[in-house]
Amino acid sequence: MAVARTLGHVDASVTNERVSSGIERLDTMLGGGYYRGASVLITGFPGTAKTTLSGAFAEAACRRGERTMFVSFDSDGSEVVRNLSSVGIALDAYVQSGCLSMISARTITGSAETYLVRIKLLAQEHGARCLVIDPVSTLSKSGNELTAHSVAERLIDWSKAQGITLVCTSLLDEMASQSEGGSPLQISTLADTWIHLNYLVQAGERNRGMSIIKSRGTAHSNQVRELILSDTGVTLADTYSAGGEVLMGTLRWEKESAERVSAELAEVAAQLKQVQLNADEAELEVRLKSVQTELIAKQVEKALLARTKESQQREATRGRSRMAELRGADLNRAGG
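^ thats the sequence. predicted structure below, dont judge the formating
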């Protein structure tokens, strides 16, 4: 374990230990998950599943037995728990056991400084090892932007000093271009890992895409993956592209279906070709056996013909000898 020394800040322990994001395929893209004590920023437009990714992280932390605090600026804690259960993220049991503390920040009034002080106090009281702020961009509404940025920066520094793994979401302006990708507080430069969620509109559908903008100290994936939410959980689809374009949703399904049909037809054609080749081979074998049988017959016929001819020659010779004897011919004198 090493110690990071930053001018004007408390020394923070640095470790190579990884903690799960709660999504197995995201862990793979990150090379093993988030670093322990790292700051993670999840940006995206409304409805892109920022809270869902945060909830998956909180569930994974509680599953490891780590006390976790989830601060929501948008909803009551019970609403967050209910909503996340619809995508297979079960937090209620951890809330009941006291491992997870759900805080509704809407009950906290005051400036960004007030939020920071209150969050730090509640986290220390809970003994949190993992902390979720959803969304941290709300701080910019509680004072001027410069102050809010300073508060966010101090929150990150404090969490590192405490060894707390911090996951913050940041809501992007709905009217802004998706290519801008920056967070309102401009804390993306401070975060160790930055995950961006967006929408990809294709064929009349709006599908969720996820990419890792950066993750310090990791050889992370640069792929854009489709984020799939279902009542059985959250996962990422394999990258699928056609003509240089990443396909998601129905277009992906149609393309995959067409390829499956094409593969099945090719398999059927190959099987038919194999059957035809087998038939041709069998026919050739029959013809070969027929030719071999005919050859043997010809060889036998040739041998019989030779024997017959030899027999005839012997009989002819014997016949001439016998005729000579009957006629009283003197063979020896015939030679004189």
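The CA atoms of residues 33 and 66 lie 16 Å apart.
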